Amino acid sequence: MFFERPESGEKAVLVHIDFGDESEAESPQELEELALSAGADPVDFLIGSRAHPSPKFFLGSGKLEELRTLVNLHGAELVIFNHALSPGQERNIEREIKCRVLDRTGLILDIFAQRARTHEGKLQVELAQLDHMSTRLVRGWTHLERQKGGIGLRGPGETQLETDRRLLRARMKSIHKRLEKVRRQRDQGRRARQRAEVPTVSLVGYTNAGKSTLFNRLTTAEVYAADQLFATLDPTLRKVQLADVGPAILADTVGFIRHLPHKLVEAFRATLQETSEATLLLHVIDCHDDERTEHIQQVKYVLEEIGAADIPVLEVYNKIDLLDGQEARIDRDEDGHPWRVWLSAVTGEGTDLLFQAVSERLSDDLFHDTLCLQPSEGQLRAHLYAQGAVVRERIDEAGRMLVEVRLQKKDLLQLLSRLGIPTERYLEQAASLNG
Questions:
Q1: What pLDDT does residue 4 have?
Q2: Which of 17-21, 226-230, 407-411 is the least confident region?
Q3: Binding site: which residues?
Q4: Whole-model pTM?
Q5: Binding residue ranges for GTP
Q6: Which residues are annotated as a binding site for Mg(2+)?
Q7: Are 136 and 174 in contact, with CB atoms under 8 Å apart?
Q8: What does the pLDDT look like over 254-266, one tens digit per residue?
């Protein structure tokens, strides 16, 4: 990217202001975790409260003076706000405290820039960064203004700021084209899976809930996993085998966070499409986290934003190894369907229950009945054995073969159609035999 990040120290003063609106409130602890994830060294925390932010400085005059004192005291070279600041507020605060200022969106973008590993992920992060920086260019280029006026400075020509904006627009246009190509390739793969009727199971959840650790446990993959926010940015797909279902695709995706910047949601829409078009979502939850209820709600907000609110969800309560006396189990609703699984991705306890629950949720259309076959229908019997669908078989008094089969209904219908056998006959027959 042609914007050079200023070389600055990692000592940072964190700022959190409480405005009394619980629905919009950020978490001070989460800001500290974000700062540590970005590589900063938080040296102090300025906390205050106001009825509403100041249009010019965001802070009141007293807190602004207190912030200046803390910056000078610690020799900090960075101030991180736990809020979204306007470009004007950033410039005004920097001018007053003589220190670089970063808001919550800029901090998350910086973490994303560090973590992106694939070509697509890097393009998406750069696009979001350029979009964020486009309103903040003026502060870095005022000394290069070529139309200030005065002797030797008059005349036609483009200002450095205008030149930079033009270059920025050209770069964003180029990234959009390259991302569109990646999206088309991803869509082709997704359509191929849909034609083959291979279900997709997508891991979603709040950042640092343990999705990648669970993904590695379920697939024996080696996806980067760490105890930090946004360890995973790039989607990873692996094939798994599920009982009664067959092959399925498991997708690991980027973690969500409270008030995920809209720029990132837009930039990562191609990645999040794996979630919005999944057959089943595994909502991974850190059951040891005191704020898990709020995190669950935030994940639901993001799922609504990307159009995935109506996809079936199976909750996965992870990290039971951190709870005393908590054992792996499946919680079921009044109809007996699994809706929550308790497990530990680190120790592997309960992962077998998760496979069982996922298989049950995906095999709602499972055909498990007894077919009555005549001796002349050996071809159908052979195909059922070839698919591994026969549970047991016995011969009745009339010499007919009573074959108990267990397979997806769509697979049975395809088999009957391929052999030219009327499907209604066997489905009705199975119903009458088990009635």
A1: 42
A2: 226-230
A3: 205-212, 230-234, 252-255, 318-321
A4: 0.67
A5: 205-212, 230-234, 252-255, 318-321
A6: 212, 232
A7: no
A8: 777 766 666 666 6
